[in-house]
Amino acid sequence: MDFLRKLAGKRRGIDDLVFDSVNIVLMILLVIVMLYPMLNTLAISFNEATDTVRGGIGIFPRSFTTYNYAHVFENAQILRAGLTSILRTVIGTATGVFASACVAYAISREHFVLRRFTTLAFVLTMYMNPGLIPTYLLHRDLGLIGSFWIYIIPSLIGVFNIIVIRSFMDNVPKSLFESAQMDGAGEFVQFFKIALPLSIPVIATVSLFIAVGQWNQWFDVFIYNSSIPELSTLQYELMKVLSSSAFQSSGDAQSQIQAGAAGIVETVTPQSVRAAMTIVVSVPIICVYPFLQKYFVKGLTIGGVKG
Amino acid sequence: MAQPVNPLAEVGKSKKGKRLSPKEFFRKCREQKELLWMTIPFLIWLFIFKYLPLTGWTMAFQNFRPALSTFEQEWVGFEHFQFLFKDARFLEILRNTLAMSFINLILGFVTAIALAILLNEIRNLAFKRVVQTISYMPHFLSWVVVAGLVATALSIEDGIINTLLVGVGIIDEPIVWLGVGKYFWGIIGASDVWKNVGWNSIIYLAAITSIDQEQYEAAEIDGATRLQKIRYITLPGIRPVFIILLIMNIGYVLESGFEAQYLLMNPLNRDFAENLDIFVLRYGISMANFSLATAAGMFKTVVSIIFLFTANKIAGKLGESRLF
Question: Is residue A189 a part of any domain in this protein?
Answer without folding.
Answer: yes
